[in-house]
Amino acid sequence: MPRLFTALECPDDIAEALSRYQCGLRGARWIERGDLHITLRFLGDVDDEVAEAFHAGLVQARPRPPLDVTLTGLDAFGGDKPRAIIAGVNAGHDLLDLQEEHERIARAAGAEPERRKFTPHVTLARLSRRDTQAPDVAVYLAEMGLVPALRFTATRVALFSARESRGGGPYVVEAAYPLG
Asked: What backbone torsions phi and psi does residue 131 show, to the nearest 5 degrees?
């Protein structure tokens, strides 16, 4: 069974800029620069029939222009029990509309509905619950300071597969769907 998700890839220059913040936090498992992305719809482990129907739906999706993306700074998920360091993403109308379309396509293909609210982001690190505490994350974010906004134009959506692991990657592009 493939483990699938759709995402916008971070271009090399953006990944390079983000990689400068991947340091100085005990218990962080930093994501490889080439695996940085903005997940649109995570399907998880699905059978081949769902995977093929999802791909077919993405091929038939309505044409869209390239998408302007703005990364807004560093943050963390998990509050008192931090689980990830992320770069936030401005959730503009076009990005939200694209994600909603992927949700509809996933459901039509037979995937379970996504239960979590879509919060666009780039995961920079996954955190060890044993080794990384909330005060550690607060110090890390304070030391990193204000991160300037990073902008890029996404020209395609990628369908990725991932191996089953604690950290996710490495990710493989199984198909790509152009924007524009």
From this structure: -100, -15
